[in-house]
Amino acid sequence: MSSSPSKRAAPAVSEVRNFIDGEYRSSSGGKTFDNVNPCTGALNGKVHEATSEDVDAAVRAARAALYGPWGKMSDAERGEILHRVADGIDARFEEFLEAECADTGKPHGIASHIDIPRGAANFRVFADAVKNFATEAFQMATPDGKGAFNIAVRKPKGVIAVISPWNLPLLLMTWKVGPALACGNTVVVKPSEETPTTTSLLGEVMNEAGVPPGVFNVVNGFGADSAGAFLTEHKGVDAITFTGETRTGEIITRAAAKGLRDVSMECGGKNPALVFADCDLEKAIEGTLRSAFANCGQVCLGTERVYVERPIFDEFVARLAEEAGKFKLGLPQDADTDMGPLVSHEHQRKVLSYYQLAVEEGAQVVLGGGVPDMPPELAGGAWVQPTIWTGLADDARVNREEIFGPCCHVRPFDTEDEAIALANDTDYGLAAAIWTENTSRALRVSTAINCGIAWVNSWFLRDLRTAFGGAKESGMGREGGEHSLEFYTEMQNVCIKI
Ligand code: NAD
């Protein structure tokens, strides 16, 4: 039997400290900020904000650990420890699940199938991948006829700053920390100020798994004039890996220019879905329901622009609205919850401002458009209705700017060329979804869209060996499989004259 929602919605207030050199440390400046539960508005706990001295201590600890036992281990030895980290996450699955859901408000159904298992998998996959990561060798002729050999070796890049967002906190942070550590680097992580708890908890797992002190460090805080800026501007950082908004990515890239530090940028999107009349309509509707509304629309790969071939436009819109209208909004722990709240009141204000703008820009509101009625114990949460619009101009701001909420605009098209042009009419280039049963069309259209990831008759189907990243303003570089290992290593060529 489940307990009452109000009881379960108010976890014990806890403190999240920084994790530096293998131990939890309070803010040296004595500063804390609130971690708020987005379902209720209640306080989850206090977070210790890292000062520049704390960040400096974390970077120094990471530097020292590079030259300690971690740097001397073989890939296989490090891999064994990283497998233990993954096992440690599995062993404390419930704790990670509760913490992730309390910070984000997302349903258990999502976090238990995606966030937490992927958090563990990111360590296993890269611990194994690094063992098979080849280098290169070239034999060359020389004027004396004896020749030379060129052998490339890969080395860790050094101290890596990891800046992560709030939408998939454990998953996206470990997506960087897993390969960085597998390659022998050390890391200082700055999780999102909205969702610090699972990153902090990982410190305990690292200690239990035998990761030496200083290899994994966590500093909490905000961006400008806080831990994010202190870390990315720190001279002791060798490379920066970032996932978040494009504008933040630009600021961090500027910080990285000083000292020519390498950057990996996974940024925003305004992703299209193209639904052709020859699609399997059931699949297309089910897929678009997920791509537009999963995680309350807070997925970088999510669909915000849906283009539907005219003969099936009316039916598609009606069916999508009918199904989205059935979503049950509620607490993470309730088995029938389809959608949680947005991550914060600040984000709720942003999303609602777009809901209002859509009306001002002339949209027809097919579904939602506001704040849902919630029971009294959830009234303080950051809830918004799933929302569908039609009728907006292609240059409407709602059609051009990333909203990052549970909403999409649906527009008809008449030809394949028009659909491709509409899909590409954006500053972003992260992902696209194409729904058609015609394989030739699927190949033609998917390759004509200027984006990093195109799905045909699916969405969010991820093989972790494949390239992941965005074109245009959606990012720089690729993660996944060998692409991650490439970023987290420095290649050195050794030329040996015979
Ligand atoms: P955000 O850019 O506001 O914050 C991301 C991180 O950067 C946070 O940890 C934040 O504290 C930090 N930060 C902010 N300003 C900084 C500064 N000046 N210096 C250093 N660090 C700073 O992004 P968000 O709101 O947390 O996440 C949502 C965004 O992330 C959306 O745009 C979404 O599309 C994007 N995203 C992209 C991907 C991808 O793989 N491409 C994945 C998930 C989310």
From TrEMBL:
<dbReference type="InterPro" id="IPR016160">
    <property type="entry name" value="Ald_DH_CS_CYS"/>
</dbReference>
<dbReference type="InterPro" id="IPR016162">
    <property type="entry name" value="Ald_DH_N"/>
</dbReference>
<keyword id="KW-0520">NAD</keyword>
<dbReference type="InterPro" id="IPR016163">
    <property type="entry name" value="Ald_DH_C"/>
</dbReference>
<dbReference type="InterPro" id="IPR015590">
    <property type="entry name" value="Aldehyde_DH_dom"/>
</dbReference>
<dbReference type="GO" id="GO:0004030">
    <property type="term" value="F:aldehyde dehydrogenase [NAD(P)+] activity"/>
</dbReference>
<dbReference type="Pfam" id="PF00171">
    <property type="entry name" value="Aldedh"/>
</dbReference>
<comment type="similarity">
    <text>Belongs to the aldehyde dehydrogenase family.</text>
</comment>
<feature type="active site">
    <location>
        <position position="266"/>
    </location>
</feature>
<feature type="domain" description="Aldehyde dehydrogenase">
    <location>
        <begin position="26"/>
        <end position="494"/>
    </location>
</feature>
<keyword id="KW-0560">Oxidoreductase</keyword>
<dbReference type="InterPro" id="IPR016161">
    <property type="entry name" value="Ald_DH/histidinol_DH"/>
</dbReference>
<protein>
    <submittedName>
        <fullName>2-hydroxymuconic semialdehyde dehydrogenase</fullName>
        <ecNumber>1.2.1.85</ecNumber>
    </submittedName>
</protein>
<dbReference type="InterPro" id="IPR029510">
    <property type="entry name" value="Ald_DH_CS_GLU"/>
</dbReference>
<dbReference type="InterPro" id="IPR017628">
    <property type="entry name" value="OHmuconic_semiald_DH"/>
</dbReference>
